[in-house]
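Bumping with the actual sequence this time:
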Amino acid sequence: MTTKIIDVSSHNGIIDWKKVANYGVSDVIIRLSLGYGDKDVMARRYAIEASEAGLNVSYYHLAFPDTREGTISVDATQEANYFTSLFQEGKMPTPKWLAVDLEQMNNGWDTPLNKTEYLSWVKIFIRQVYSNTGLICFIYSNQPYLDAHLPADHGLGSIPLWIANYNNVSSPRLPKGWSQYFLWQYAETGAVKGIKGHVDLNIVRRKDN
């Protein structure tokens, strides 16, 4: 596996993007926002410097699916609008891809929504992102999480899947409803010149895989 695609957040600290590019990385997916009103403090700097170094730039949103903004529809719509406004109005590089990160938070917080409600939230978020940008928003998660939080007949199988699986396998196990992945985050302890410490590594699915 080659380290052509990485994803980063402010946890990765100061990055020398010229060294990253010279190492052979072609794409970076940057955490742009968390929930509603919380922007990753390094996102704009990362995006501009990575783009200037010749990398393709993409963004992801760490979702907080709930009803804190009133209803499922209002909450999902506001998070989607906040996410897309940051690069559309903030003079940031145009993204190649967009993704929504669906997972339990490091502090233990998880969505209070049931499976039907959660599915509705995700669909509204993806639909609103597409309405705002014309880009289909990928889903980032792992197989156990999606199987535990989505109904088996969720109907999201046409949405590109960015799957996390760090096991030493030839292909990651997929959640119910998907027949293939688009991106595979296969390592969270990768090493790339220009980045101190570990970094996530990803690959695009081969057409024959």
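The tokens above came from a reply further down the thread. The helical segments are 17-22, 43-52, 72-88, 115-133, 143-149.
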